[in-house]
Write a structure and sequence with these properties.
The protein is α+β, with helices and mostly antiparallel strands. It has ten helices and eleven strands.
Length: 286
């Protein structure tokens, strides 16, 4: 094999509950995560030595700050693979947008290189490597729909929901995940186990139940701190989405539509207002 192209799918959080701060400084969470059709493409080719990243995107680092680089370097170290590799990254997922773009790229790199170099590593072994990159990487390896607990690294696959038409909006601001966590107040968190409600709705393939169970604890602070994100959320609903929600700590928000036709119409209505608007849908595990 001299070339392999893998897709790195963006995620949304159908629920995101922050349970408590751990002694390590991380937070314990419970989140129903879902992959979407929005994706980056990563093409892997042989190289004489080292790790090289090419991308037409100006905001993509070409060095060890890139999650693709980190994943490749860790895989080389852990497996003993002494190969050079070149990556061509086509970036579509908004950088720092709360959709796990970096985690998705890292996961696709681990899975892709495991195949490309014929390493034969198990999913469990890839999980272990992923912990040194980021908590969402494990979910991105599993894909589809899953419940993430612990710090996000414990992933339990779930059955897929009915295909949900989505409109993703990113208003072009940056939200620091650290700042978003620091802004959380205990009395603003919800402990009604929205994730359990969401899982029940998914298992019943209940569209209205899924819409009613959407929840993100970060909304209590992020939407007040960044009015443009709250405006994007409202605009999605006013344009016809059944409901809209912040993904991760933001800045991306997503709306759920009744149909793909409606999602496209909402996207067309909002494109003049925001730098990134994308109509897509939920996707299952490949």
């Amino acid at each position: 094999m001299t070339e392999l192209t893998v897709k790195a799918y963006a995620k949304i959080n159908l629920t995101l509950e922050i349970l408590r701060r751990l002694p390590s400084g991380y937070h314990e969470i419970k989140s129903v995560m879902q992959q979407t059709g929005l994706c980056d493409d990563i093409t892997i080719t042989e190289a004489h030595a080292g790790i090289t990243i090419e991308s037409a995107s100006s905001n993509v680092p070409r060095n060890a700050r890139n999650s693709v680089w980190k994943a490749a370097a860790l895989l080389k170290e852990r497996s003993g693979a002494d190969y050079g590799v070149k990556f061509k990254l086509v970036k579509r997922i908004p950088v720092g947008g709360g959709m796990g773009g970096g985690s998705a790229d890292a996961a696709a790199t681990l899975v892709g290189l495991n195949q490309f170099w014929q390493l034969g590593l198990s999913q469990t072994e890839l999980f272990e490597i992923s912990q040194e990159i980021g908590m969402d990487v494990a979910f991105c390896i599993v894909g589809g729909t899953a419940l993430a607990t612990g710090r996000g690294e414990i992933v339990q696959p779930l059955p897929p929901p009915p295909k949900l038409p989505l409109v993703i909006v990113n208003p072009g601001v940056f939200v620091s995940t650290r700042t978003a966590y620091e802004g959380l107040k205990a009395d603003e968190l919800t402990f009604t186990d929205k994730s359990a409600q969401m899982i029940d709705a998914i298992r019943r393939r209940d569209f209205d139940g899924i819409v009613a169970s959407l929840h993100n604890d970060f909304e209590s602070t992020v939407l007040d701190e960044y009015p443009v994100i709250g405006a994007a959320r409202r605009d999605l609903v006013e344009a016809g989405a059944e409901a809209a929600l912040l993904s991760g700590s933001g800045a991306s928000v997503f709306g759920i539509a009744r149909s793909a036709t409606q999602a496209r119409a909402i996207a067309e209505a909002l494109k003049p207002r925001y730098p990134f608007v994308y109509a897509t849908h939920t996707v299952g595990k490949e």
